[in-house]
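RESIDUES AND SHAPES:
===
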Amino acid sequence: MTIMLTTRALAKSFTLHLRGGLLMQVLSGVDLDVRAGECVVLSGPSGAGKSTLMRSLYGNYRAEGGSILIRHRGEMVDIAAADPRTILAVRHETLGYVSQFLRVVPRVSALDVVAEVLLARGVDLETARGRAQALLLQLNIPARLHAIPPATFSGGEQQRVNLARGFIAGHPILLLDEPTASLDAENRAVVIRMVQQAKASGTAIVAICHDADVRDAIADRLFTMTPYQDAA
């Protein structure tokens, strides 16, 4: 299978200014390969650097060593060295990220929060809203809520809107940060099916997932991480 994402010797540290400039190493020498149609779940205790790795893969954290290669437009682009314009293009076309929390946009309906991703790609309004509606219904967000801004929704409902927004674009690579953390058993099962369908279509997925049942259902393999201090 085609490698869609690979890291080599990836390193990231943080400077703790409130601790007198103490340097805290979080990632060091991380080598990871993710192939099309594969879901790799990051595993390890709290503090192992799973969230730091995820944010580095998306370019939210700037890696200070090593490479993060993303297959974009048929070529491997190094996110660790790319300029902001290139990173935005990779996110727009190739690399999706579903965080735990929805960034709520005031006065924008749930339907349009999800449809906006397709509108930004030039899809016409009717088609974009139709696909957004179908995904929201699949995620058990009833039609009566589609016209309401999700700021008033429960945490679980907001997470499902966020999942719809993340899956609607069909990115070839998808990063999932605790995608079922606020969901009940019925909706966890829906998300599991969505992940399995995405894998079947060739999507490469990296996930953080502490729910053992969900992890076992979606993971092709685990990528075990150890806190840097313990590994050193």
